[in-house]
Protein backbone atom coordinates (compact mmCIF):
# COMPACT_ATOMS: atom_id res chain seq x y z
CA UNK A 1 0.00 0.00 0.00
CA UNK A 2 1.70 3.19 -1.21
CA UNK A 3 -1.26 5.47 -0.70
CA UNK A 4 -1.79 8.60 1.27
CA UNK A 5 -5.52 9.14 1.73
CA UNK A 6 -6.99 12.56 2.35
CA UNK A 7 -10.54 13.38 3.35
CA UNK A 8 -12.63 15.19 2.40
CA UNK A 9 -11.76 15.80 -1.26
CA UNK A 10 -13.68 19.08 -1.27
CA UNK A 11 -14.67 21.39 1.56
CA UNK A 12 -16.57 24.66 1.60
CA UNK A 13 -16.60 26.52 4.89
CA UNK A 14 -17.61 29.88 6.23
CA UNK A 15 -15.22 32.19 7.99
CA UNK A 16 -16.72 31.37 11.39
CA UNK A 17 -16.74 27.61 10.94
CA UNK A 18 -14.46 25.01 12.48
CA UNK A 19 -13.50 22.10 10.27
CA UNK A 20 -10.76 19.47 10.07
CA UNK A 21 -8.81 17.88 7.25
CA UNK A 22 -7.71 14.30 7.68
CA UNK A 23 -4.74 12.39 6.25
CA UNK A 24 -3.92 8.70 6.65
CA UNK A 25 -1.06 6.47 5.51
CA UNK A 26 -0.15 2.85 6.25
CA UNK A 27 3.35 2.74 4.80
CA UNK A 28 5.05 2.92 8.18
CA UNK A 29 6.32 6.42 7.42
CA UNK A 30 7.21 8.41 10.51
CA UNK A 31 7.40 11.84 8.84
CA UNK A 32 4.22 13.56 7.70
CA UNK A 33 3.72 16.93 6.06
CA UNK A 34 1.07 19.51 5.27
CA UNK A 35 1.51 21.63 2.16
CA UNK A 36 -0.66 24.45 0.84
CA UNK A 37 -0.94 25.00 -2.92
CA UNK A 38 -2.56 28.02 -4.51
CA UNK A 39 -3.66 27.89 -8.13
CA UNK A 40 -0.78 27.85 -10.63
CA UNK A 41 1.78 27.88 -7.79
CA UNK A 42 4.08 25.23 -6.31
CA UNK A 43 3.24 23.54 -3.00
CA UNK A 44 4.42 25.49 0.05
CA UNK A 45 5.37 23.65 3.21
CA UNK A 46 3.26 24.40 6.29
CA UNK A 47 4.14 21.76 8.90
CA UNK A 48 6.34 18.70 9.38
CA UNK A 49 5.77 16.00 11.98
CA UNK A 50 8.51 13.54 12.81
CA UNK A 51 7.71 10.58 15.05
CA UNK A 52 4.40 12.24 15.94
CA UNK A 53 6.08 15.41 17.14
CA UNK A 54 5.87 18.77 15.41
CA UNK A 55 9.34 19.47 14.05
CA UNK A 56 8.79 22.28 11.55
CA UNK A 57 6.20 25.08 11.55
CA UNK A 58 6.81 27.46 8.66
CA UNK A 59 5.33 30.45 10.53
CA UNK A 60 1.79 29.36 9.75
CA UNK A 61 -1.04 31.46 11.28
CA UNK A 62 -2.61 29.97 14.38
CA UNK A 63 -5.97 29.56 12.63
CA UNK A 64 -4.32 26.40 11.22
CA UNK A 65 -3.70 23.83 13.96
CA UNK A 66 -2.02 20.53 13.10
CA UNK A 67 -2.34 17.35 15.09
CA UNK A 68 -0.69 13.94 14.78
CA UNK A 69 -2.62 11.53 17.03
CA UNK A 70 -0.64 8.46 15.95
CA UNK A 71 1.94 7.35 13.40
CA UNK A 72 -0.67 6.83 10.67
CA UNK A 73 -2.86 9.89 11.05
CA UNK A 74 -2.39 13.59 10.51
CA UNK A 75 -5.08 16.20 10.99
CA UNK A 76 -5.28 19.88 10.17
CA UNK A 77 -7.83 21.79 12.26
CA UNK A 78 -9.20 24.94 10.69
CA UNK A 79 -10.84 27.84 12.50
CA UNK A 80 -11.73 31.39 11.53
CA UNK A 81 -10.18 31.11 8.09
CA UNK A 82 -10.06 33.90 5.54
CA UNK A 83 -11.05 33.71 1.86
CA UNK A 84 -7.36 33.92 0.93
CA UNK A 85 -6.86 30.57 2.68
CA UNK A 86 -8.78 28.91 -0.14
CA UNK A 87 -6.35 26.47 -1.75
CA UNK A 88 -5.49 22.82 -2.32
CA UNK A 89 -4.14 21.31 0.91
CA UNK A 90 -1.79 18.41 0.34
CA UNK A 91 -0.65 15.85 2.85
CA UNK A 92 2.53 13.85 2.32
CA UNK A 93 4.54 11.23 4.15
CA UNK A 94 8.07 9.86 3.97
CA UNK A 95 10.72 7.98 5.85
CA UNK A 96 11.91 10.35 8.56
CA UNK A 97 15.61 10.15 7.93
CA UNK A 98 17.69 10.89 4.87
CA UNK A 99 17.62 13.73 2.44
CA UNK A 100 17.16 11.38 -0.50
CA UNK A 101 13.88 9.88 0.56
CA UNK A 102 10.92 10.89 -1.53
CA UNK A 103 7.62 12.14 -0.19
CA UNK A 104 4.38 10.40 -1.14
CA UNK A 105 1.49 12.79 -1.65
CA UNK A 106 -2.24 12.43 -1.20
CA UNK A 107 -4.77 13.72 -3.71
CA UNK A 108 -5.42 16.82 -1.65
CA UNK A 109 -8.41 18.60 -0.18
CA UNK A 110 -9.77 21.49 -2.21
CA UNK A 111 -10.77 24.09 0.38
CA UNK A 112 -13.00 27.06 -0.38
CA UNK A 113 -13.58 29.68 2.32
CA UNK A 114 -16.67 31.82 1.80
CA UNK B 1 19.01 27.71 1.62
CA UNK B 2 18.97 25.49 -1.40
CA UNK B 3 16.69 26.27 -4.31
CA UNK B 4 15.76 25.10 -7.78
CA UNK B 5 14.87 27.24 -10.78
CA UNK B 6 12.68 25.95 -13.55
CA UNK B 7 13.21 27.78 -16.82
CA UNK B 8 9.98 28.22 -18.72
CA UNK B 9 6.65 28.27 -16.98
CA UNK B 10 4.97 26.77 -20.05
CA UNK B 11 6.31 24.32 -22.61
CA UNK B 12 4.27 23.22 -25.61
CA UNK B 13 5.21 20.27 -27.80
CA UNK B 14 3.61 18.18 -30.50
CA UNK B 15 2.69 14.58 -29.86
CA UNK B 16 5.72 12.41 -30.63
CA UNK B 17 8.20 15.26 -30.17
CA UNK B 18 11.00 15.45 -27.63
CA UNK B 19 10.09 16.80 -24.21
CA UNK B 20 12.73 18.89 -22.40
CA UNK B 21 11.91 20.54 -19.09
CA UNK B 22 14.70 22.54 -17.48
CA UNK B 23 15.74 22.65 -13.84
CA UNK B 24 18.82 24.29 -12.35
CA UNK B 25 19.82 24.04 -8.72
CA UNK B 26 21.80 26.25 -6.40
CA UNK B 27 23.72 24.28 -3.85
CA UNK B 28 27.23 24.26 -2.50
CA UNK B 29 26.98 20.56 -1.66
CA UNK B 30 25.64 17.67 -3.72
CA UNK B 31 21.89 18.14 -3.74
CA UNK B 32 19.17 15.54 -3.65
CA UNK B 33 16.82 16.35 -6.49
CA UNK B 34 13.39 15.14 -7.50
CA UNK B 35 10.93 15.56 -10.35
CA UNK B 36 7.22 15.37 -9.57
CA UNK B 37 4.21 15.49 -11.90
CA UNK B 38 0.79 16.88 -11.04
CA UNK B 39 -2.24 16.17 -13.21
CA UNK B 40 -5.22 18.54 -12.94
CA UNK B 41 -6.98 18.36 -9.57
CA UNK B 42 -4.58 15.67 -8.36
CA UNK B 43 -1.77 15.34 -5.87
CA UNK B 44 1.89 15.03 -6.81
CA UNK B 45 3.45 11.85 -8.14
CA UNK B 46 7.17 11.14 -8.10
CA UNK B 47 8.70 10.70 -11.56
CA UNK B 48 12.30 10.17 -10.52
CA UNK B 49 14.98 11.20 -8.04
CA UNK B 50 18.72 11.83 -8.06
CA UNK B 51 20.66 10.37 -5.15
CA UNK B 52 24.25 10.50 -6.48
CA UNK B 53 24.33 6.81 -7.39
CA UNK B 54 24.15 7.58 -11.13
CA UNK B 55 24.06 10.79 -13.13
CA UNK B 56 21.45 9.49 -15.59
CA UNK B 57 18.26 8.63 -13.77
CA UNK B 58 15.38 6.75 -15.34
CA UNK B 59 11.89 7.28 -14.04
CA UNK B 60 8.35 6.24 -14.72
CA UNK B 61 6.37 6.82 -17.93
CA UNK B 62 9.52 6.96 -20.08
CA UNK B 63 11.00 10.04 -18.42
CA UNK B 64 14.65 10.43 -17.51
CA UNK B 65 16.89 13.15 -16.15
CA UNK B 66 20.61 13.78 -16.23
CA UNK B 67 22.49 15.38 -13.36
CA UNK B 68 25.21 17.71 -14.64
CA UNK B 69 27.32 19.19 -11.89
CA UNK B 70 29.25 21.45 -14.25
CA UNK B 71 25.99 23.06 -15.36
CA UNK B 72 24.18 22.72 -12.00
CA UNK B 73 21.31 21.22 -13.94
CA UNK B 74 18.88 18.33 -13.67
CA UNK B 75 16.78 18.58 -16.84
CA UNK B 76 13.88 16.20 -17.47
CA UNK B 77 13.48 14.60 -20.88
CA UNK B 78 11.26 12.19 -22.74
CA UNK B 79 12.02 11.13 -26.32
CA UNK B 80 8.43 11.10 -27.55
CA UNK B 81 5.59 13.05 -25.97
CA UNK B 82 2.20 11.49 -25.47
CA UNK B 83 -1.08 13.31 -24.96
CA UNK B 84 -1.28 11.84 -21.46
CA UNK B 85 1.94 13.66 -20.49
CA UNK B 86 0.09 16.98 -20.37
CA UNK B 87 0.46 18.11 -16.75
CA UNK B 88 2.37 20.41 -14.39
CA UNK B 89 5.93 19.32 -13.62
CA UNK B 90 7.83 20.36 -10.51
CA UNK B 91 11.53 20.07 -9.79
CA UNK B 92 12.31 19.87 -6.07
CA UNK B 93 15.33 19.80 -3.77
CA UNK B 94 15.58 18.18 -0.37
CA UNK B 95 17.12 20.36 2.29
CA UNK B 96 17.62 20.34 6.03
CA UNK B 97 14.97 22.47 7.71
CA UNK B 98 16.59 22.70 11.10
CA UNK B 99 15.01 19.61 12.58
CA UNK B 100 13.89 17.59 9.59
CA UNK B 101 14.42 17.30 5.87
CA UNK B 102 11.88 19.05 3.68
CA UNK B 103 11.18 19.43 -0.02
CA UNK B 104 11.37 22.85 -1.66
CA UNK B 105 9.76 23.09 -5.08
CA UNK B 106 10.50 25.10 -8.17
CA UNK B 107 7.73 27.24 -9.65
CA UNK B 108 6.64 24.48 -12.00
CA UNK B 109 6.40 24.02 -15.77
CA UNK B 110 3.09 23.39 -17.48
CA UNK B 111 3.50 20.94 -20.34
CA UNK B 112 0.90 20.95 -23.09
CA UNK B 113 0.93 18.33 -25.84
CA UNK B 114 -0.65 19.19 -29.16
CA UNK B 115 -2.10 16.49 -31.43
List keywords for this structure.
heterodimer, A: 114 residues, mainly beta, 7-stranded mixed sheet, 4-stranded antiparallel sheet, 0% helix, B: 115 residues, 6-stranded mixed sheet, 5-stranded antiparallel sheet, 11 strands
Strand content bin of chain A: over 45%
Helix content of chain A: under 10%
Which two protein chains have the largest interface (Cβ within 8 Å of the partner's Cβ), and how many residues from each?
Answer: A-B, 29 and 28 residues
User: Which structural class matches the secondary elements of chain B?
Assistant: mainly beta
Biggest beta sheet summary of chain B:
6 strands, mixed
Q: What proportion of the residues of chain B is helical, as a percent range?
A: under 10%
- Rg of chain B, rounded, reads 14 Å
Structural class call of chain A reads: mainly beta
End-to-end separation of chain B in angstroms reads 41 Å
Task: Say how many strands of chain A there are.
Answer: 11
Mean pLDDT of chain A, rounded to whole units?
A: 93
Count, helices of chain A: 0
How much is the radius of gyration of chain A in Å? 13 Å
Relative strand content of chain B: over 45%
H/E series of chain A, N to C? EEEEEEEEEEE
In terms of quaternary structure, the protein is heterodimer
Tell the overall outline of chain B. Answer: globular
Runs of chain B with pLDDT <50, length 5+? none
Q: Which sequence of SSEs, written as H and E, runs from N to C of chain B?
A: EEEEEEEEEEE
Largest sheet of chain A: 7 strands, mixed
Amino acid sequence: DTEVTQTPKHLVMGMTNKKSLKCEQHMGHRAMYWYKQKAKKPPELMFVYSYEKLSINESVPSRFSPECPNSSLLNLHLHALQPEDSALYLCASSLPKGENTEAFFGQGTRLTVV
Amino acid sequence: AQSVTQLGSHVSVSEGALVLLRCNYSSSVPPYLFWYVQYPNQGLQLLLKYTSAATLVKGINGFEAEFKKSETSFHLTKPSAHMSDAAEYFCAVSEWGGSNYKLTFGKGTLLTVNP
